């Protein structure tokens, strides 16, 4: 019995020692973490020593100022008026990005091959994969070179007819809606139209998405865009495990499943069609292939095609980018036409002169819509479909004014703030399409207006997008007179693309 008691005491003593060691290890780990975070914070402060910025909260940094209340973008603009060229924006005390809105700074950054910021883009990678949007290095160059022929003007020419057809389907729906109510919410209808367009043009997929009562993919894109932006703003959700077990993580996985099922269906159908000899012969006779056919027929020097992962990543990327950014652009253009009726009138006169009695736009018409194009560009200045892009500096950079940023700095180029900078634009809040007349653009800085970014990583589909915006705007204004709905001012939010939390509503009146 005594020996048993002794063993118990020794065992208890052993357990106590283990607990002490565990406590010491936990203490050392916490101390090491605290020191590491302190050093990181001091390093970040040193990185921005030449750049004053807004006052930071001791805990939140500047994060608490951005509440997704429709004024976040305006806060960035207000700060841009206080601090020259750029300033640090802190999320807490241990992470900061550098906000840029100076055309000279933008030119220096976009001329380089710095990768997309992994922190900002990693939350979207699970959705669109590692396609052209997020790739960097040799693989990005390989995919860019591979896909560039898919946007040759010989490929884009026949797309104009398909764009007209898709736009007319939307306008036909609006004619029926006008008999029931005066106004429509633009973004939903335009999103269906641009999705229909990209599927028919780039993926040879005959979609009926505009005429179906519900479209699961469009709803999934809305959900994913909101959830990606929400996750970025909620610090605990940056941890993969916490996000996985959270209600928002559950919603994300459900929406992700729907989006991936849609793109898988498109790929599968095109693969099946290529098994038929006639379809294969038709492709082989083409001088320039469509986007999806390029991906399916691509071979490297060893005769190997793209992996299934790479194929789906590019399809997911262009399915989203090819419709959602353009939907944002078209929606805000029609909103501006409703808001500024004097410019709407001038556009309509030009469109009638170019199109005559036709209800379709032809390739040759696009270059003749000069005033309409200026209105489109002025809208993209005030309401850029992509409000900003992020880079992570692979090497230090020194700007024209002698100030520098070190390697690994996360840089956010705010196109929204750049486009509203009084040092770049006269009366920047005024809607003035003549800013983009030939006589007014000759002396402008090359990087003052960047609707499709610039440099080697500029938007590969910019001509496709501009053509679609011209077609949709021309056919809409030819058929309808647009005006604003009272008390429905859009609440602008950057959710990957520029959206409105309360929709974009306009009143439609059929032109006889």
Describe the structure.
Its main location: endoplasmic reticulum. Pfam families: p450. Keywords: Endoplasmic reticulum, Heme, Iron, Membrane, Metal-binding, Monooxygenase, Oxidoreductase, Transmembrane, Transmembrane helix. With 512 residues, this protein is an alpha+beta fold. The chain has a single domain, classed as Cytochrome P450 (Cytochrome p450), CATH 1.10.630.10. 56% of the residues lie in helices and 9% in strands. Strands 1-2-7-4 form a 4-stranded mixed β-sheet, sandwiched between helices. A 3-stranded antiparallel β-sheet has the order 3-11-8. Strands 5-6 form a two-stranded antiparallel sheet. The radius of gyration is 26 Å and the shape is globular. The termini are far apart.
Q: Which percent range fits the helix content?
A: 55-70%
> What is the typical, i.e. mean, pLDDT?
88
Weakly predicted, low-confidence segments: none
The helix/strand series, from N terminus to C terminus, equals HHEEHHHHEHHHHHHHHHHEEEEHHHEEEE
Return the domain count. 1
Shape: globular
């Amino acid at each position: 019995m005594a020996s048993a008691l002794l063993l118990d005491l020794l065992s208890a003593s052993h357990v106590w020692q283990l607990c002490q060691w565990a406590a010491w290890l936990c203490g050392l780990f916490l101390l090491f973490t605290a020191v590491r975070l302190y050093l990181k914070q001091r390093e970040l402060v040193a990185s921005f020593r030449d750049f004053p910025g807004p006052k930071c909260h001791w805990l939140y940094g500047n994060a608490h100022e951005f509440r997704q209340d429709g004024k976040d973008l305006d806060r960035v603009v207000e700060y841009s008026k206080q601090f020259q060229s750029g300033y640090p924006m802190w999320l807490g005390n241990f992470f900061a990005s550098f906000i840029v809105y100076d055309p000279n700074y933008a030119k220096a950054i976009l001329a380089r091959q710095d990768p997309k910021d992994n922190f900002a883009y990693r939350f979207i990678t699970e959705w669109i994969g590692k396609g052209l949007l997020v790739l960097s290095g040799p693989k990005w160059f390989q995919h860019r070179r591979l896909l560039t022929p898919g946007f040759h003007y010989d490929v884009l020419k026949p797309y104009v007819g398909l764009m007209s057809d898709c736009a007319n389907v939307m306008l036909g729906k609006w004619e029926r809606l006008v008999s029931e109510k005066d106004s429509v919410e633009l973004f939903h209808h335009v999103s269906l139209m641009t999705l229909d367009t990209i599927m028919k043009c780039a993926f040879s997929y005959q979609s009926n998405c505009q005429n179906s009562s519900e479209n699961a993919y469009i709803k999934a894109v809305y959900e994913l865009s909101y959830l990606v932006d929400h996750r970025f703003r909620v610090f605990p959700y940056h941890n993969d495990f916490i996000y996985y077990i959270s209600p928002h993580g559950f919603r994300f996985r459900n929406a992700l499943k729907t989006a991936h099922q849609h793109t898988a269906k498109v790929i599968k159908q095109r693969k099946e069609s290529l098994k038929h000899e006639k379809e294969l012969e038709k492709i082989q006779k083409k001088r320039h292939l469509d986007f999806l056919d390029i991906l399916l027929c691509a071979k490297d020097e060893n005769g190997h095609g793209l992996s299934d992962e790479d194929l789906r990543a590019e399809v997911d990327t262009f399915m989203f980018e090819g419709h959602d950014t353009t939907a944002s652009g078209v929606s805000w253009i029609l909103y501006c036409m409703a808001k500024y009726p004097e410019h709407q009138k001038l556009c309509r006169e030009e469109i009638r002169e170019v199109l005559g009695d036709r209800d379709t736009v032809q390739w040759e018409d696009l270059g003749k819509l000069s005033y309409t194009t200026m209105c489109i560009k002025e809208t993209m200045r005030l309401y850029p479909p992509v409000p900003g892009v992020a880079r992570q500096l692979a090497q230090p950079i020194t700007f024209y004014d002698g100030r520098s940023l070190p390697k690994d700095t996360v840089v956010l180029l705010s196109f929204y703030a750049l486009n509203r900078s009084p040092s770049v634009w006269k009366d920047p809040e005024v809607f003035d399409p003549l800013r983009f007349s030939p006589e007014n653009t000759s002396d402008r800085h090359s990087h003052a207006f960047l609707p499709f970014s610039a440099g080697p990583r500029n938007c590969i589909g910019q001509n496709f997008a501009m053509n679609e915006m011209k077609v949709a705007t021309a056919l809409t204004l030819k058929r309808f007179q647009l005006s604003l709905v009272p008390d429905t001012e859009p609440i602008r939010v950057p959710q990957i693309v520029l959206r409105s939390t309360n929709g974009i509503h306009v009143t439609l009146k059929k032109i006889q």
